[in-house]
């Protein structure tokens, strides 16, 4: 199982689901060998500061939606090494003294992070971990696994919802997801703007709306398509959406749906919708809308599914397809065209001394020191850029391109807000962990502050992210020192 989650159900009673029974060993092996190395070297009391950020935007887009920090905090609140885990590590050859250290370990790290649902961009630190170097090292893989995946899916969902506009988008991806990652994917999809999920477990755990219609197997199991529609309408008279393409959408499926719709009207009910799951969706939706309207069924909605993504949704709507709801699956929960976010977790401070990683590839040279992030907005509260500054410096008048210092932006006249806020202090959560819907609402509001040129799918405008002059000088000085 994947995550450890606690939440409130519709009756406001606490509902818990233990989805990750061994979070302490949900890690890469080398995190533990390094941790033991620190311990055996007598460095267990040394401190460190790590930054989480990503280098490239997914889906060739102009933004990302930060997600996963809520699940991270849920896990860290109950983080410890259980005896059975320590026994396993002993069998792997770890030293007894180190295992005793882990047995008594209580997290004391502190974390600053962007809010879940924040609209974020490359190289901007989104999470800062400070504390004992052993603790910070052990948490690396867990943080990367959750933040990278949920941010990827929340971003894909936001792109699909943006393409759909005021039409609803539902998550139908559970059966095509990578195993139990479907639970994280469905939650992240809600954060990105999807309205409901077919994933009952995710709905139960996160108190998010569940939705679904019928499969072709339901239709095939009856002697006739009409019998299958009538049976479904009998049992679900207020929630009937009929799948009309099992045999022939226009010759049988749609006429039979109209027949059942009229029968429902006679009993005081209404057919909720029809679903198209194959063929030319633009063509069939126009034909369906025409026949439904001619039958006086203007209120019946048309849903469409079948390998949809933001580009196909946009194409369908550009063709004037009268589709009211989109069911998205595979291309949402797998991230499809960008199967992984390249988020990284890099050491920035050791024992209060700034450090950095250098590389022949300048894109991989990291930024040293404890850093904070300013987001700059104009008088209309629209995003203009992000500035990365050293934590102890005053607000900068200008931010500079990370690699081309002759490119800079004067930010002295803009409104400033801090992007990172304390979420964990000495191992204790210091915020109310947001629900998926709360994070979705925040993401929607922040997305409204993003200018249109960053939202387009083709060649989106590059959002300005810069560093302060003081941070640039610190990086360059350390780089020269390490190369000398």
Label this structure with key terms.
globular; alpha/beta; 16 helices; 484 residues; 23 strands; 6-stranded parallel β-sheet
Kindly describe this structure.
- The structure is a single chain.
- By secondary structure, the protein is α/β, with parallel strands linked by helices.
- The protein has helices spanning 29-40, 69-77, 83-91, 96-103, 133-138, 140-164, 181-192, 200-206, 216-220, 225-235, 249-266, 281-294, 310-318, 330-333, 436-448, 469-483; strands spanning 4-8, 14-18, 47-54, 64-65, 110-113, 119-120, 127-132, 168-171, 196-197, 241-243, 273-276, 301-304, 325-328, 343-350, 353-354, 371-377, 383-390, 398-400, 408-410, 415-418, 421-425, 428-429, 465-467.
- It is built from 16 helices and 23 strands.
- The strands form six sheets. Strands 15-14-3-7-5-21-22 form a seven-stranded antiparallel β-sheet. Strands 9-8-13-12-11-10 form a six-stranded parallel β-sheet. Strands 20-16-17-23 form a four-stranded mixed β-sheet.
- Strand 11 (273-276), helix 12 and strand 12 (301-304) form a beta-alpha-beta unit.
- Helix 6 (140-164) crosses helix 7 (181-192), helix 10 (225-235) packs parallel to helix 11 and helix 11 (249-266) packs parallel to helix 12.
- 43% of the residues are buried.
Give the CA-based shape.
Answer: globular
Q: Structural class, from helix and strand content?
A: alpha/beta
**Number of helical segments?**
16
Helix content: 25-40%
Tell me the major beta sheet.
7 strands, antiparallel
Low-pLDDT sequence parts: 1-18
Total number of β-strand segments?
23
Mean pLDDT, rounded to whole units? 94
- Looking across the biggest beta sheet, what order are the strands in? 15-14-3-7-5-21-22
Q: Radius of gyration over alpha carbons? A: 26 Å
Alpha carbon gap, first and last residue: 49 Å
How much β-strand is present in the residues? 15-25%
């Amino acid at each position: 199982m994947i995550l450890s989650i606690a939440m409130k159900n519709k009756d406001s009673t606490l509902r818990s689901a233990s989805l990750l029974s061994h979070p302490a060993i949900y890690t890469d092996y080398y995190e533990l060998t390094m941790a033991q190395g620190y311990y055996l070297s007598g460095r267990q009391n040394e401190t460190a500061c790590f930054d989480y950020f990503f280098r490239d935007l997914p889906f060739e887009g102009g933004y990302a939606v930060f997600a996963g920090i809520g699940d991270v905090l849920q896990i860290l609140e109950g983080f410890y090494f259980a005896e059975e885990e320590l026994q396993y590590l002993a069998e792997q050859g770890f030293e007894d003294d180190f295992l005793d250290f882990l047995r008594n370990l209580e997290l004391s790290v502190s974390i600053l992070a962007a809010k879940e649902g924040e609209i974020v961009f490359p190289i901007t630190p989104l999470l800062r971990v400070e504390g004992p170097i052993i603790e910070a090292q052990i948490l690396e893989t867990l943080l990367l696994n959750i933040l990278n995946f949920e941010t990827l899916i929340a971003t894909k969902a936001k792109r699909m919802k943006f393409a759909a506009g005021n039409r609803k988008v539902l998550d139908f991806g559970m059966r095509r997801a990578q195993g139990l990652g479907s639970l994280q994917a469905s939650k992240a999809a809600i954060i990105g703007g999807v309205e409901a999920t077919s994933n009952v477990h995710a709905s139960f755990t996160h108190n998010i709306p569940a939705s679904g219609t019928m499969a072709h197997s339901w239709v095939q199991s009856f002697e006739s398509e009409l019998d299958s529609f009538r049976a479904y309408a009998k049992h679900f008279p207020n929630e009937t959406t009929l799948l009309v393409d099992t045999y022939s959408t226009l010759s049988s499926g749609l006429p039979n749906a109209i027949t059942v719709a009229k029968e429902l009207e006679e009993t005081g009910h209404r057919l909720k919708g029809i679903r198209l799951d194959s063929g030319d969706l633009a063509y069939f939706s126009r034909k369906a809308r025409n026949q439904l309207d001619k039958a006086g069924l203007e209120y019946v909605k048309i849903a469409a599914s079948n390998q949809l993504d933001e580009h196909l949704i946009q194409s369908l709507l550009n063709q004037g397809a009268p589709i009211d709801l989109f069911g998205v699956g595979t291309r949402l929960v797998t991230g499809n065209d960008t199967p992984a976010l390249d988020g990284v977790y890099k050491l920035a401070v050791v024992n209060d001394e700034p450090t950095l990683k250098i590389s022949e590839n300048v894109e991989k040279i990291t930024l040293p020191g404890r850093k904070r992030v300013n987001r700059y907005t104009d008088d209309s509260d629209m995003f203009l850029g992000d500035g990365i500054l050293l934590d102890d410096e005053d607000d900068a008048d200008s931010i500079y391109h990370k690699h081309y210092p002759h490119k800079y932006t004067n930010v002295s006249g803009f409104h400033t807000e801090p992007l990172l806020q304390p979420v964990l202090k000495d191992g204790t959560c210091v915020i109310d962990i947001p629900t998926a819907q709360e994070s979705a609402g925040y993401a929607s509001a922040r997305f409204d502050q993003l200018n249109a040129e960053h939202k387009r799918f083709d060649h989106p405008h590059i959002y300005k992210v810069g560093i302060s002059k003081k941070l640039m000088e610190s990086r360059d000085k350390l780089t020269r020192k390490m190369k000398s």
